[in-house]
Every structure is written in C-alpha cells, then in structure tokens.
Write a structure and sequence with these properties.
single chain; mainly beta; 2 domains; 14-stranded antiparallel sheet; 7-stranded antiparallel sheet; 54% strand; Hydratase
C-alpha cells in the first residue's frame, strides 16, 4: 500500500540527496496516432553509467534532458549528460546546457537544442505542455517512502514544433515526476507502467517487483478535476517480448486482448510502446513502459550505455 503526500507543480527545485534522483517525464501522441514523443529531464540520471561510476555522491553533476521522437517523417534520440556547472534550476525552471523547460503558470514550455547519439545530428524545437488537469498528490512506491511518484498533469494538450527533424503536430499528453533517495535498481527488479486517457478519466497502472522480490502495484483513476481514487487492477495480460527480449506485461478488461501498435523505444533493459487496449469498459489507446533493472545491472548492458548516453564536459 502506498502513502499519499501533498504535492503540486513541477517542483524543479526539489532537494536531491547523494545516491538520489529526480526526473520529470512528458509523453504525447499526435491526434492521428502517427507521432509519439517522450521527454525526460534528469537530476542524478538514473540510467547514467557515469553517475554510477562516480559513486553517486553528487546527483547535480549528472543531469540530462532526454528527447525521443517517433513518426513517419523522422525520428530522433538525444540524451547528453552534463555537469553541474551547465545546470540551472529554480522552482519553475530547469535547464541543462542549451536545453531547458520552464513553467509559466499555465503551461510547461520546453526548448530543445540537442545533438543525437550515436549518429550526431541536430534535435531542435519547442514543445508546449498545457495541463487539462493538475494532480496535487504524490504516491510512495515502497514501504519506506524512498521512491515517490507525482502525476503533475495526467491529461494535457501538447503542441510540438520541431525544426530538426522538421515536424509540427499536436495531441494528447501526460506529465509526471519521480523522486528517490537511493538508486532505482536498489529498490526494484522490474516494473510495468501505463497510462490511458479514457472519455472522462485517466487510468494509471503501475506494477512490478521490488528488489527483495515482493510485488507492488498501484491502480488509479483521475477525473477531470485531477481528483484520484484507487481502482481494482484489471486482468493481467502478457504482451510480446521486445526485439531485445524484454518482458512486457499490462492489464486489460476480462475478455479483451491488448495489442502493441508501435514500439517507440526498444533498448536492452527498457521498452516504451503504444497500446490499443480496453480498460474500465472503454476502448483506449495507452502509453506503456517496461523496465528490467536486472538487465540494467548487467556489466554488458552498462558497457553499452555510453554510446547512446554520451557525457559532455562543458
């Protein structure tokens, strides 16, 4: 059972202790379903091999803004880690190198000026995230409260205007944040998460195994005013493994089968996908992620990370 904590806004000035982390996550899909976007801003980047090798004593020295774009007219990936001298933040503003995001009271505006990896090309543009509801509650994901999740805006309207690659679209989105006092892999072995925009509500489903082997799950619905209530998890369902053979699992109403419509990110320990599913009596399109921290702890996987997550020293 998770505890509930009062929380509101992005809180970019949150304290991040040694060994800890903070991230702010945005996803969106275009109205026609052809495009997908994920942006994650990290302090104490949880997947950084450099942060791990450093002993995790200074999370602010390991920051990044990860951008992933998918679509028929171009895709992009960028995740360059930068040191604390290139990071600036306040309650409503967070910048890492040339990229940044700020909360203007009505919207989160994200300015992107990155270089992709491993092939170096420009990733530039602006994304505006306008909440349609605001979440005011954070939830703990473990009994000790070392890992916490805050759905900042479970439903939002997102406008994407990229110059590199050239694309412009808008659609439904989602904005949350996670904070922790220990490495993510110290708390969990794996998890599966999804969010689905229903006609009136937003469903968010979390489940997985903690590092000690005990299961956890959290199933919530948010109404148009951002008020939440617990719901019973729908029926468990397996999804096809990814190209890297990462297990994927989700929940669906009894008598229905979920379908992976697109795999946005297929990594050795992580997958993000778009699903066509049926939840709480409604057909729904969902964004889904599966994370294998057992895989992430592997020395082989650790050796692969710098190719997709370079570190800049300026």
């Amino acid at each position: 059972m998770s505890r509930r904590l009062l929380a509101q806004g992005p809180r970019f000035d949150v304290h991040v202790a040694a060994n800890g982390y903070a991230w702010w996550y945005i996803d969106a899909t275009s109205a026609d379903g052809a495009h997908g976007l994920t942006i994650i801003a990290f302090i104490g980047s949880v997947f950084s091999p450099y942060y791990k090798l450093s002993g995790r004593g200074d999370p602010e020295n390991h920051c990044a803004i990860n951008v992933s774009l998918n679509g028929p007219r171009g895709s992009a990936w960028a995740m360059t880690e930068r040191p604390s001298k290139r990071m600036r933040r306040s309650a409503d503003h967070f910048a890492v190198g040339p990229s940044g995001m700020h909360w203007d009271g009505d919207s989160l505006v994200i300015d992107i000026a990155e270089i992709s990896a491993p092939l170096p090309y420009k990733v530039r543009g602006t994304v505006r995230v306008t909440p349609e509801m605001i979440g005011t509650t954070a939830f703990t994901l473990d009994p000790e409260g070392r890992h916490r999740w805050h759905p900042v805006a479970p439903r939002a309207h997102v406008e994407v205007a990229m110059t590199h690659p050239g694309m412009r679209w808008s659609g439904a989105g989602y904005f949350d944040s996670n904070f922790g006092d220990e490495p993510l892999e110290a708390g969990f072995n794996d998890w599966h998460w999804s969010r689905a925009h229903l006609k009136n509500d937003v469903a968010v489903l979390y489940e997985g195994r903690r590092r000690d082997g005990t299961p956890f799950d959290l199933a919530l619905k948010f109404d148009r005013q951002g008020r939440w209530h617990d719901v019973v998890q729908p029926t468990a369902a397996r999804l096809p493994r990814t190209g890297w053979l990462v297990d994927r699992a989700t929940r669906v109403d009894a008598g229905h089968r979920p379908r992976v419509t697109k795999t946005w990110i297929d990594a050795p320990f992580y997958a993000r996908s778009a699903l066509s599913t049926h939840l709480f009596g409604e057909d729904a399109q969902a964004v889904h992620e599966s994370l294998s921290l057992g895989r992430f702890r592997s020395p082989i996987v650790q050796s692969m990370l710098p190719y997709r997550m370079p570190r800049a020293f300026w």
